[in-house]
């Protein structure tokens, strides 16, 4: 099963992708997480990506496409995967499509998690991420057991650099101009499914499992 998560920044793609990955036993592949891991480890890719991410801009396709194709070529992806944050531009979607066609494969579902911009800005201010393992929390909706400490690994919880209100607004603008056209792209292929992302996370997950079966 090959699934793509679509939706604005903060719509809950990562939250739902993790739950899908656990339920169906397929890897959760997030380009944002890959970039953040590279930044944390001080790699050259991380250094280049950070300059764009901190401004809320997209990392150029030349850098992004290669790391994604390398990732999905790994053995654990042979029975499928859930992509979170990729593709994010039409050229990225076209490259993925071409690569899958070459292998005689295709995307099964593109799930659009729909949340209006007003809700997004509120959600992002409350998100906290673990610096060590990347787990995400929300100070109101998903609080950690102990404030500022990750339940999973005891790491420190921080506000992501790109979750400051001015950067969030730019990420939303970038989303509407560069990523939203993918909704039509996947609709035309007959694989688009929409879910209401304003509902409680478990309700959102129930709508997704009803689609995936
Ligand atoms: P990325 O890491 O992909 O960030 P994003 O798309 O902006 O999305 P987020 O991770 O912010 O949100 P999410 O939808 O995963 O929401 P979450 O589940 O955390 O990308 C970051 C940057 O990397 C980009 O800006 C770009 O620079 C670069 N990049 C990455 N991929 C790229 C690509 N392919 N091409 C070019 N550049 C790329 O939820 C948000 C919060 O809400 C959490 O606190 C959560 O607990 C809470 N929440 C979730 N669901 C609910 C709910 N139903 N009700 C209430 N609260 C909820
Ligand atoms: Mg995410």
3D structure, described in words:
- This protein has 213 residues and is an alpha/beta fold.
- It is 48% helix and 15% strand.
- It is built from nine helices and eight strands.
- The strands form two sheets. It has a five-stranded parallel β-sheet with strand order 2-3-1-4-8, with helices on both faces. A three-stranded antiparallel β-sheet has the order 6-5-7.
- Helix 1 crosses helix 9, helix 2 (31-40) crosses helix 3 (44-53) and helix 4 packs parallel to helix 5 (90-102).
- The model has no long low-confidence stretch (mean pLDDT 96).
- The structure holds BIS(adenosine)-5'-pentaphosphate and magnesium ion.
- The site of magnesium ion has 5 residues, from helix 1.
Largest sheet: 5 strands, parallel
Low-confidence stretches: none
Estimated share of beta-strand residues: 15-25%
Order of helices and strands: EHEHHHEHEHEEEHHEH
Q: How much helicity do the residues have? A: 40-55%
Structural class: alpha/beta
Q: Helical element count?
A: 9
Arithmetic mean of pLDDT:
96
Global shape: globular
Determine Rg (CA atoms, Å): 16 Å
Which ligands are bound?
A: BIS(adenosine)-5'-pentaphosphate, magnesium ion
E-strand count: 8
What distance lies between the first and last C-alpha atoms, to the nearest angstrom?
A: 11 Å
- Write out the strand line-up for the largest beta sheet, numbering strands in chain order: 2-3-1-4-8
SSE layout and pairings?
Blueprint: E1 2-6, H1 13-24, E2 28-30, H2 31-40, H3 44-53, H4 61-72, E3 81-84, H5 90-102, E4 109-114, H6 117-126, E5 127-130, E6 136-138, E7 157-158, H7 165-179, H8 181-188, E8 192-196, H9 201-212
BIS(adenosine)-5'-pentaphosphate (AP5) is lined by residues 7, 9-15, 31-32, 35, 52-53, 56-59, 64, 85-86, 88, 92, 123, 126-127, 136, 138, 141-142, 162, 171, 197, 200-201, 204.
């Amino acid at each position: 099963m090959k699934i793509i998560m679509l939706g604005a920044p903060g719509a809950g793609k990562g939250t739902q992708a993790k739950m899908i990955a656990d339920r169906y036993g397929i890897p959760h592949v997030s380009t944002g997480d890959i970039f953040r891991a590279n930044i944390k480890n001080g790699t050259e890719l991380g250094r280049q990506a950070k300059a764009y991410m901190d401004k809320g801009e997209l990392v150029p396709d030349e850098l992004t496409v290669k790391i994604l194709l390398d990732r999905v070529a790994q053995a654990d992806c042979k029975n499928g995967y859930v992509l979170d944050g990729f593709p994010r531009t039409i050229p990225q979607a076209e490259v993925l499509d071409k690569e899958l066609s070459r292998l005689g494969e295709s995307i099964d579902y593109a799930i659009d998690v729909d949340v209006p911009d007003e809700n997004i800005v509120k959600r992002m201010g409350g998100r906290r991420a673990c610096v060590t393992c990347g787990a995400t929390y929300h100070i109101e909706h998903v609080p950690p057991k102990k404030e500022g400490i990750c339940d999973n690994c005891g790491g420190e919880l921080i506000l992501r650099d790109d979750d400051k209100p001015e950067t969030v607004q730019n990420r939303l603008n970038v989303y509407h101009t560069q990523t939203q056209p993918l909704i039509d792209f996947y609709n035309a292929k007959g694989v688009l499914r929409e879910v209401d992302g304003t509902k409680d996370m478990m309700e959102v997950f129930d709508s997704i499992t009803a689609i995936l079966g």
